[in-house]
Amino acid sequence: MKLIQNNILELTRTSVLEKMSNLKFFSSEEINKLKDIKLGLLRKNSVYRHGVTRFLPKKKWGSVIPDPSCVRVVDIHPMLLEVKWETYREIILYHEFIHCLGYLGHNKEFYNIESKWPTINQKKNLGNQFMELLKVKNSTWAWRCIKCQMKVLRQRKSSNKYICGKCGSKLIDEPI
User: Phi first, then psi: what are they for 113, rounded to 5°?
Assistant: First the structure.
């Protein structure tokens, strides 16, 4: 299983780096440095994080400005390895590779670079679908409003002291 996961990660890396080189924005040196970054997987119960770049401690950085040599690992959600998520998986890996190249913040410059990706217009829709899937898969509890019937999926039971944002009624914990 681990071999299959690693193969999918490496095939995705190859595809993303090839597309990045076709964008004519990144230097061949930058793209070559991304080939050495370790790829891994997030925990399967992660809901709100679909990918993350984990940097080495700053005292171990080989440069003043972060670059790929400062990255410990790029992790993506294991469910993104499924074939149906290939497009979103590539978008997430591209997003993380931008971070690896030193663009740490989600600012105008970062989003300008991210916008160059060929399928970026699908990111919001795919991201929302993926998030909903993860919420349903990982939820064992739900808050339910007795008055307006609003329902919010939860991973843990709460203390029954929260109120509905719509109508102000008390939210009740229900097992799923």
Answer: -65, -45
